[in-house]
Amino acid sequence: MSNRTDFDGVPLTTAPIPNLSDEEFSYFKGTWEAHLLPAITQALGQANVVGGQVLFHRRQYITILTREEAAPSLKSQVERIVAEALREDIRAKISVQFGVGEVVRTGS
Q1: Gap between the Cα atoms of 45 and 63, Å rounded
Q2: Which end of the chain is more exposed for a tag (fewer CB within 10 A), N or C?
Q3: Mean pLDDT calculated for residue range 3-18
Q4: pTM of this structure
């Protein structure tokens, strides 16, 4: 177990997810660009989510940020999109997270 927390500072009770190898990351990147990101973005649009942002970071996490709490049906739809697009061995190493907020760019 770890001392990691979610967006609200609540401790995560799951074991850390293993990182993708270079080969797995190469496969994931191709799938992300060609299928996953467009499909998730389309699902957000169909759900009338304004200002939703989709991020992939640390070779482990797909994070969907929305200004308001995402509906359970949207969360399920995104989970299905990810599960159907990825090989099972890769899917086991990717976590889908939802958060409320937005990415604010600072600086020039």
Answers
A1: 16
A2: C
A3: 60
A4: 0.76
* 3-state SS track over the chain: CCCCECCCCCECCCCCCCCCCHHHHHHHHHHHHHHHHHHHHHHHHHCCCCCCEEEEECCCEEEEEECCCCCHHHHHHHHHHHHHHCCHHHHCCCEEEEEECCCCCCCC
* Kind of pairing between the strands at 53-57 and 95-100: unpaired
As given in the structure block, the two tokens for residue 8 are 């609200």
Q: Which amino acid is at 54?
A: V
36-94: pLDDT as tens digits: 999 999 999 999 988 888 988 877 889 999 998 999 999 999 999 999 999 999 999 99
Task: Tokens for 100, please give them.
Answer: 């409320």
Helix (H) or strand (E) holding 46: helix 37-46
